[in-house]
Automatic annotation (TrEMBL):
Residues 23-251 form the THIF-type NAD/FAD binding fold domain. It comes from Propionibacterium acidifaciens F0233. This is ThiF family protein. Pfam families: ThiF. Transmembrane segments: none annotated. GO terms for molecular function: nucleotidyltransferase activity; sulfotransferase activity; thiosulfate-cyanide sulfurtransferase activity; ubiquitin-like modifier activating enzyme activity.
Length: 253
């Protein structure tokens, strides 16, 4: 199962093929999968804790175009988990900092910078992307992005982290035949009432756990683009790093 791509999938040049040789050797990816990664357009909403590993690993994987959507600037308190940014970036808008560091990692990747992802922005530009990654850190933003994706039929890779625990899944309201149609509201029907659910602002968040979750989200995006593996559609990965326990639970069939 692979998401449809907006760009034409062309052949790999020699330098790209050599750079990604070990990825091409992975079962289910091959040269065609790597070429699809090079043609893919992925919008990452949030360039903070989750967005950092997502962006770094997608750039390293050779995704051709990454959209970085964030209205915040880098703060010193971000640096314990947002490894895409450094001390010299404090005060810099996160999309600009992200573009600079991603360009240093892989100059072949095109990075497009955007501010806050409003409903208007998504209505106007959301259809330009093959996969959307929800790396936001508030319930308001998560349900805004997820509700748009459900209405638009866009594949959405979603994750959330608090303390030493995380959840992640793939939502797709118009998947290929044989797969369940899902959205964030299939898993969590309502926005939590204020104070009813712990948030990272109150309960904290461990940077290494954000890295675990974000890396797993990047893997889901690679799977959707290349067709390798079995994406988390209709399932949610629940991680408890404090006890090193991880479960994949089915919530839709």
């Amino acid at each position: 199962m692979r998401v449809p791509l907006r760009n034409r999938v062309g052949p790999l040049d020699d330098a790209t093929a050599a750079r990604h040789r070990r990825t091409r050797l992975v079962t289910g990816i091959g040269e065609r999968g790597q070429a699809r990664l090079a043609a893919a357009r992925v919008l990452v909403i949030g360039a903070g804790g989750l967005g950092s590993p997502v962006l770094l690993y997608l750039a390293a994987a050779g995704v051709g175009t990454l959209g970085v959507c964030d209205s915040d600037v880098v703060e010193l308190s971000n640096l314990q988990r947002q490894l895409l940014h450094g001390e010299a970036d404090v005060g810099t808008p996160k999309p600009a900092s992200a573009a600079a560091h991603l360009g240093g990692l892989n100059s072949a990747v095109r990075v497009e910078q955007y501010p806050h992802a409003t409903r208007g922005f998504l209505d106007k530009h959301g259809a330009e992307w093959d996969v959307v990654m929800d790396c936001t850190d508030s319930f308001t933003a998560k349900y805004l992005v997820a509700d748009w994706a459900a209405e638009a039929g866009a594949p959405l890779v979603w994750g959330t982290v608090v303390g030493m625990g995380f959840q992640l899944s793939v939502f797709w309201s118009r998947p290929p035949t044989g797969l369940p149609a899902t959205s964030l509201r299939t898993l969590h029907p309502r926005v939590p009432e204020p104070g009813s659910t712990p948030t990272s602002a109150r309960a904290g968040v461990l940077g290494t756990v954000v890295g675990q979750a974000g890396t797993a989200m990047a893997t889901e995006a690679v799977k959707l683009i290349t067709g390798a593996g079995d994406p988390l559609i209709g399932r949610v990965l629940v991680g408890d790093a404090a006890r090193n326990r991880y479960e994949t639970l089915r919530f839709a069939r």
